Amino acid sequence: MITGKNIRQTVPSLVTLAALFFSFASIFSTLEAMRLNMPLLMARSAKYIILALVLDGLDGNLARWINGSTSFGAELDTFVDFTAFSLAPAALLFSLLLFGPNPVWRWILPTAIVFSGATRMSRFRSGDPLRGQGGFIGLPITANSSWIALVVFAALILKPDQNILVRGPVSILFQIPILVMITLQLSIFRYPKPSNRVRYFAPAALAILAFLVLGDFYAAWLALIMAGACLLYVVIGPYVHKRSLSH
């Protein structure tokens, strides 16, 4: 028998599964970009990762708003997070690095993202009974995946066919933060969870919605602004969390 409780518990999980769909859509789009040798298809892969990010933030909030939280939904969300924010960006980065000069590095960096993400999520499941509600232990993997997706999208739209993220000085500015972030994912620094506060989640969701619906040129500049906000969170997140505990 279908009850109101069943519906409340099912709806958030459907949103989580939608995030899973777009994470796989990102991976498939990346594979298609490699098959057809069409780098611009990777811009679509990046957009799918960001769309999965919105849905990932929405499902937990929705479960709380309608009193539909379940242990099944929490476990499902963890596996979706690993797919959307570890495997999908690693695949995207590997595809991008195919145009770089170092065949070894194209394996090392994406693999490090997956290893760090798997370790981070395992610790999240086993060592954080509050599942991030009291603040994340270590940088959440959504930060690194957002950085990769947003910067890759902007570079492909604003500087197509120039490979600036795998060659030259811009590539260093792009890849060093990735190394820093996957290291911070395994740290003991505590980061706040903005998505469980409407005053933070709502404007972020609106900015991402604008990114998804704007024309590519304007979306690319907005992506750079959001990537800057992502780096700001990485830098000041522990301070903000510590300050929130003192109030």
- Tell me the radius of gyration: 18 Å
Class from helix and strand fractions? mainly alpha
Contiguous uncertain segments of 5+ residues: none
Mean pLDDT: 85
Task: Give the fraction of residues assigned to helices.
Answer: over 70%
Shape: globular
How are the strands of the biggest sheet laid out side by side? 1-2
Number of helices: 8
What number of structural domains do the residues give? 1
**End-to-end distance:** 46 Å
CATH topology (level 3) name: Four Helix Bundle (Hemerythrin (Met), subunit A)
Question: Could you give the count of β-strands?
Answer: 2
Beta-strand content estimate: under 5%
Please give the CATH class.
Answer: Mainly Alpha
Major sheet details: 2 strands, antiparallel
- Give helix and strand order, one letter per element, not per position: HHHHEHHEHH
The CATH architecture classification is Up-down Bundle
Question: What attributes characterize this protein structure?
Answer:
mainly alpha; Four Helix Bundle (Hemerythrin (Met), subunit A); 247 residues; two-stranded antiparallel sheet; 2 strands
Give a topology summary.
Elements: H1 4-36, H2 41-65, H3 71-97, H4 105-127, E1 136-137, H5 141-158, H6 169-184, E2 190-191, H7 198-213, H8 216-245
Antiparallel strand pairs: 1-2
Helix pairs in contact: 1-2, 1-3, 2-3, 2-5, 2-7, 3-4, 3-5, 4-6, 5-6, 5-8, 7-8
